[in-house]
Design brief:
This protein is mainly beta. The protein has two helices and 40 strands. The strands form ten sheets. The protein has a five-stranded mixed beta sheet with strand order 2-9-8-4-6, with no helix packed on it. It has a five-stranded mixed beta sheet with strand order 11-18-17-13-15, with no helix packed on it. Strands 24-25-22-28-29 form a five-stranded antiparallel beta sheet, with no helix packed on it. Strand 17 and strand 18 form a beta hairpin. It is flat, with a radius of gyration of 40 Å. Keywords: Membrane, Transmembrane, Transmembrane helix.
């Protein structure tokens, strides 16, 4: 009897176990039944338009409720329509067998061969279950070789402590316009920064602005590096973009140079200065010095100066004891022309010199005269910047101009006569900042208050009697341009008795001042005083003497 009871219990357990297993089997859930994948390219060019397609499918037998998709673009992506890098999208319930896809578009930024990972998560709650589940997936794309040229133009050897020039050249062939570009340079030890063009931020950083396809440029740096002969110095640079406060590296450049043992040291002066800044029409006196810094004498040397054929007037050249070759615009000195080139002992120094004039008109903006010197495999380049040309014209009228003048002509002691003064300015070649025109009024002359244009920044100091036209900044125009700025103002003369019998001064000599943005030199040009003789107003000729 007891055996039958135990058998009954065992059979009952099997029945209930089977029922439980059946219930568990039909109610358990695995997140693997939701298929989630990202479709997209496995390689991409810098700035290329790409599309990620996130696909999902419910392969199970449950309705997936309250689904939410999260998509995260690869780091430093440019997202379509300025949407966020990480997007959360609520979805409708996903029924068994249902599938759908969402599209995400953007551009990838980064350096070549960098891995860019897109990520997606889909969370949901199976129907009749309280727990939430999440499926995740990723897709990796590799940045193709970046269509950017970024490289050093650096000499292979330089002398220790000697000034030299090098360049960073950049060029974009990317289809995507690149903005907010920044270049950083990492100098080797014992490098001394002197200057750069364009100007740097803290000597190591440059902003390039917008770079469209086929746009390019260069950064030119001047400096010195010290070291022992045969020592190697490594220069590094990186090009990237600032985005959302982070620097995205696009390209790197690395180049080394070697410290060489100098045998000849070349130096120079132009008009007595090693850093001379010239003006159009100036005569330039070049003095080129060469010193034997080695231990052995040098014999039968050959010195060549290649001159800039775009900025110099070769009809004015005075080659000294050198020989000028017109076809190549080259000056040559050899041992038959200069005894120091025949034999130069250790630590001895020699010199050659010549004269030439800068052209009166130039065809380019931000002009710099480049003279290349070669002597016994030693090469130097002399750069001489040319100042802007500020032009000022000061004229006086009675019968012309925007104002109606009145009073006695010729002027009479104790009686008032009004005149119009005209200032015209022009600026050529370089941009000039903080431009002002200044003059003074004699005690017998006052301003009437008439001014054209009326919004001109024109001021008068009653104590010093100085008048000032604050022009601001001027853009450099090309030679022959008639573009300029002008101003008219009216003055009133009431002559004193001691002015009787002579022409009276209306305005003193005027001067225009400013700072050249290219050469950084202060500029000043003057224009003659204006008297009642008014040479520019023929209608009142002979009516200048105070009565």
């Amino acid at each position: 009897m007891r055996g039958k009871f135990f058998l009954f219990i065992i059979i009952l357990g099997i029945i209930f176990g089977g029922i439980g297993y059946y219930y568990y089997k039909n109610n358990m859930y695995s997140k693997d039944v939701l298929k989630l994948e990202i479709l997209g390219p496995d390689t991409a060019e810098l700035g290329e338009d790409i599309e990620y397609v996130v696909k999902y499918k419910n392969n199970g037998g449950f309705v997936l409720e309250e689904p939410k998709l999260i998509f995260e673009y690869p780091q430093y992506s440019v997202v379509e329509n300025d949407k966020p890098q990480r997007q959360e999208i609520p979805l409708e319930d996903i029924y068994p067998g249902a599938e759908n896809a969402l599209s995400f578009k953007g551009k990838l930024l980064g350096k070549e061969n960098e891995s860019k990972v897109a990520k997606a998560w889909l969370s949901y709650r199976p129907k009749n279950l309280k727990a939430r589940y999440e499926s995740a997936t990723t897709l990796t794309a590799i940045i193709k070789p970046v269509p950017l040229t970024f490289e050093f133009d650096l000499p292979s050897k330089v002398e220790s402590g000697k000034e030299f020039h090098f360049r960073l050249n950049y060029f974009s062939n990317a289809n995507y316009p690149l903005s907010n570009l920044r270049v950083f340079v990492d100098y080797p030890s014992d490098f001394e920064f002197i200057s750069s063009m364009p100007k740097s931020l803290e000597k190591t950083e440059w902003g390039l602005g917008l770079l469209n396809r086929t746009d390019g440029g260069r950064i030119e740096i001047v400096g010195k590096v010290s070291g022992e002969p045969a020592e190697e110095k490594i220069f590094k640079a990186k090009l990237g973009i600032w985005q959302d406060g982070e620097y995205i590296l696009l390209k790197e450049a690395v180049r080394g140079l070697e410290i060489m043992q100098p045998s000849i040291f070349i130096s120079w002066q132009i008009n007595g200065s090693p850093r001379y800044i010239t003006n159009v029409g100036d005569y330039l006196h070049y003095e080129i010095f060469f010193k034997n810094t080695g231990e052995k004498p040098l014999e039968n040397l050959f010195l060549v100066a290649k001159l800039d054929d775009s900025l110099l007037d070769f009809s004015t050249i005075q080659p000294g004891n050198g020989k000028f070759q017109e076809s190549s615009k080259t000056l040559i000195w050899d041992h038959t022309m200069n005894q120091d080139l025949r034999f130069l002992d250790s630590m001895d120094e020699g010199k050659v010199d010549f004269w030439i004039k800068v052209k009166d008109q130039l065809s380019s903006n931000n002009p710099v005269i480049k003279t290349k010197i070669s002597l016994s495999q030693v090469n130097e380049e002399i750069e001489t910047k040319v100042n802007a040309k500020l032009a000022l014209s000061q004229k006086g009228y009675f019968s012309q101009g925007p104002f109606v003048n009145s009073g006695s002509l010729p002027p009479t002691v104790g009686q008032s006569t009004s005149y119009t003064i005209f200032w015209q300015i022009q600026n050529f070649y370089n941009d000039v900042k903080n431009v002002k025109v200044k003059a003074t009024l004699p005690s017998q002359v006052r301003l009437s208050g008439e001014l054209f244009p009326k919004d001109a920044k024109f001021a008068f100091d009653q104590v010093s009697r100085e008048i000032v036209w604050d022009v601001g900044d001027l853009v450099g125009e090309s030679a022959g341009s008639t573009t300029g700025k002008e101003i008219f103002f009216q003055v009133v003369l009431t002559p004193d008795p001691n002015q009787r019998g002579q022409a009276a001064q209306l305005v003193s000599e005027a001067k225009i001042i400013g700072q050249d943005s290219w050469t950084e030199a202060p500029l000043e040009t003057k224009a003659p005083e204006i008297t009642t003789s008014l040479p520019d107003d023929v209608a009142v000729s002979g009516k200048d003497i105070v009565q």
